[in-house]
Amino acid sequence: MTEENYAIGIDLGTSYSSVCIWKNDEVKIIENDYGYRTTPSYVAFTDSEILIGDAAKTQINLNPCNTIFDIPRLIGRSIYNKDVQSGMKYWPFSVVEKNEKLHIRVKYKEEWKDFTPEEIASLLIIKMKETAENYLDRQVKNAVITVPAHFDNLQFQAIKNAGLIAGLKIIRIINSPTAAAIAYGLKTKAIGKRIVLVFDLGGSTCNVSLLAFDCGIFEVKAVIGNYDLGGKYFDDSIVNHFVQEIKRKFKKSLSKTDLCRIRTHCERAKCKLSTSDCALIEIDSLLDDYNTTLTRAKFEELNEDLFQSAINLINKVLNDARIDKTEVHEVVLIGGSTHIPRIQKLISKFFDGKELIKSINPEEAAARGAAIQAAILSGNKSKKIRDVLLLDVNAFAFSIETSDGIITSFIERNTTLPIEESKLFKLSTKGSSYKDTLDRNPKNNYNILIQIYEGERYYTNLIGQFELPISSSASKIEITLKLNLNLVLKVSAVEKINGRNSKINKKEITINNGLSEEEIERMVSEAENYRTEREIIIQKMQARTDFEIYIHRLDRIINDINNMNMKNKLEKAISESFTWLDNNEEAEKDEYERKKKLLKETVNQIADETLWRR
Amino acid sequence: MDFNRQEVINSQTYYEILEISDENASIEQIKQQYQKLLLLHHPDKSGFIMNNINNSDENIKNNYNKERKVEFIIKAWKVLRDPELRKVYDDELKAMRLKQDEIYNADIDLDDMEYNEEMRLYSIPCRCSGNYIITEQDLERGANITGCTTCSLKIHILYEVIDE
Predict the structure, then answer these.
(1) CATH superfamily, with its number, for domain A396-510
(2) DSSP label at A76?
(3) Suppose A370 and one of A144, A342, A346, A606 were both cysteines; which one would form an S-S bond, judging by CB atoms 3.0 to 4.6 Å apart?
């Protein structure tokens, strides 16, 4: 494998992200600079720098309004999206609309600044990319990325753009349960055909994939995703419960910061309830050190409806794939929230007491799958993956509306990629009223409006439209939808005269989410700036640490010096340096280096003087 | 670079797509052939995505053709793996072959036929005062032979779908 085509696998989760690579015939998960295998999907803006990951999450209580999380819920969406609206109720950061697009407003270096979700996501991607690069000690240019299963086409495009901004080519997007299934399938490698259901309950999404494994070919039968389900919503129920209780008992309303702190504690309590029956919640300096207990029974009672809808999702995916639950060979659980005992019990009960597979690490499975897919796509010749191929499906249906207001469904949900579908649309009889209602264009032709929708029945979303000029002699138009392996959707239309394709009146468009090339270019250069800024800060911290280490070392050495004169002089120099450090917490890299050099010179001078005199 | 779907379906049967000569092949044989071809032709297995970073027209076209090929391989397998669907397809195939073997009396250009927009069909009078009629739907399906409504004569309709 050459440098050029090395690809990594990134799991960009709502709560946590992780990165994996394929190395020496196996998947390796890469630890971040804190030594953790997962990195919180948090980005924070402060007066002096941008923090990403653990550094951002740990300071959230101090800086809630400028700490961004839940990016997969924002990216590629409009501010009017139902999920965005519901999230805005509790997100401490502010979401605004600018140029008809969703932006996140933060205070960075004491200035208000608006970022697109793509830019924030790109910072997370950069962090994961750097983690991999530090480990591999070389540049990485390509990545496979996993996203929640409910992502629509515009969100796919947005993730790709976020990758571009981060300097990574996203060669494939797969949804997280499907990725986990690859990891699981490769690990078990059983012979014969097996149907595997992967249930992924994460921070704020619930995704289910149903796959058929047959001799290395992993065929996705159906996928489904829901963004109203997940750990965060379980936290919500607990938070609401306690907020009501506080209101009742203390008649006090709570600030956004208080809510944020309550949420952190509730999340901890929830995790504890997976292993014990009761959890204590203690919050310092909230209403004179508020504390209370939460039992597992109460937690289950508060969330029973949500748990039930997770089961409904499994039912739905089986229906979509037309597979009976008794045909499922294995049920694999991934995602942090599948640790909840009640969920495990309900799923096992649904499958008539089937043993659930919890052997794969739920937090890492998706990234592992992404890394395997990345290795496959880079043409890795490893024996383990030589005959492995994933056949993915589209998660949403597509339909077309022509000027006469009739919606024709085109591509069904869960169709194996790649897909190309053509359909003929008959124009009404010549001279009929329908054609007269169309606008005539200057060449005395008609224009027909073609609109492309994603989704079906009650949930449809207009994702693109164009006008096709047609001559008055045309009787039909042919519309073609192409969805390739990279989930790029192209729509073309051509007029037909006497069964023949017209050479003039034809058009093809590619659906994208509206970020123009210039915008992406601008964001790329800004991301580059942030990267440089972060580097400067890292170098600065390094210089300061170097200086500190040097002083401490000196401090230890002087205890062994017998010459009092020399000792006193050195002690004076050291204490001066300590004072300077205390007063200069935000000095530049050069200053630290200069001070260190000065101290060194002083020390040498003192040594020379005392030694000469001797 | 238009790749006409009709053409592919007409010129190749699902068996031909899967390179199976025996149409009574067992499901196991078909499956093996399907898996072999899939791994051979799937763009994901060719390292194409990484090796062809430059998006030249030639590359895009190549990849597109590969994707189309794989799409048909998958389509063929999805029909042939299901015993019921396979039966329906086999019957249709048989009927189509019978149709194509027919003897016809004349070649007629589609442009010489009269188009009826109401009924979506083409027609031309026969010398027996009857009519040769072919529906648009039949043409789209690839039929090109039609009989007279009153006598036993048949005509072969000449038409082509013009591509770029």
Answers:
(1) Substrate Binding Domain Of DNAk; Chain A, domain 1 (2.60.34.10)
(2) T
(3) A144
| CATH superfamily label, A231-303 | ATPase, substrate binding domain, subdomain 4 (3.90.640.10)
A430/B161 Cβ within 8 A: no
Residue A409: partners with Cβ closer than 8 Å, 6 or more residues away:
A397, A398, A399, A456
- Do B14 and B91 lie in one domain? The reply is yes
Contacts of B30 (CB under 8 A, 6+ apart): B18, B20, B77, B80, B81
Q: What are phi and psi of A608, to 5 degrees?
A: -55, -50
Mean pLDDT over each residue of chain A, to the nearest integer: 86
Residue range A469-482, pLDDT digits in tens: 888 777 788 999 99
Taking contacts as CB-CB distances below 8 angstroms, the residues of chain B near A390 are 44
Q: What angle do CA A308, A312, A313 make, to 5 degrees?
A: 120
B25 and B84 in a common domain? yes
B35 assigned to some structural domain? yes
Q: Is A165 left (phi over 0), alpha (psi -120 to 50) or beta?
A: alpha
- What is the pLDDT, as a whole number, of residue B3? 34
Find the CATH number of the domain harbouring B13. Answer: 1.10.287.110
Task: Indicate the SS3 state at residue A590.
Answer: helix
Alpha helices in A359-402 (DSSP H): 365-377
Contact indicator for A195, A549 with CB cutoff of 8 Å? no
Q: Give the CATH fold of the A7-229+305-391 domain.
A: Nucleotidyltransferase; domain 5 (3.30.420)
At A548, list the tokens: 């500190």
For the question of an ipTM over 0.90, the answer is no
Contact B71 A422 (CB under 8 A): no
- Bridge partners of A19, per DSSP, are A10
Domain membership of residue B85 (yes or no) is yes
Nearest of A30, A82, A333, A378 to residue B51 by alpha carbon: A378
pLDDT over threshold 90, residue A526: no
**pLDDT digit string, tens, across residues A91-133:** 889 999 988 889 999 999 889 999 999 999 999 999 999 999 9
Is A74's pLDDT higher than 60? Answer: yes
CATH topology of domain A518-612: Substrate Binding Domain Of Dnak; Chain:A; Domain 2 (1.20.1270)
Task: List B residues 44-83 in contact with A (Cβ-Cβ < 8 A).
Answer: 44-47, 49-51, 53, 64, 67-68, 70-71, 74, 78
| A501 has pLDDT over 50 | yes
Asked if pLDDT for residue A47 goes beyond 70, the answer is yes
pLDDT at position A393 over 90: yes
Chain B residue numbers touching A377 (CB-CB < 8 A): 44, 47, 49-50
Of B54, B78, B98, which marks where a domain is finished?
B98
CA distance B94 to chain A (A): 25
The whole-number average pLDDT for the span A303-313 is: 93
The predicted pLDDT at position A614 comes to 53
Domain span holding position B127: 103-158
Q: Are residues B78 and B118 in the same domain?
A: no
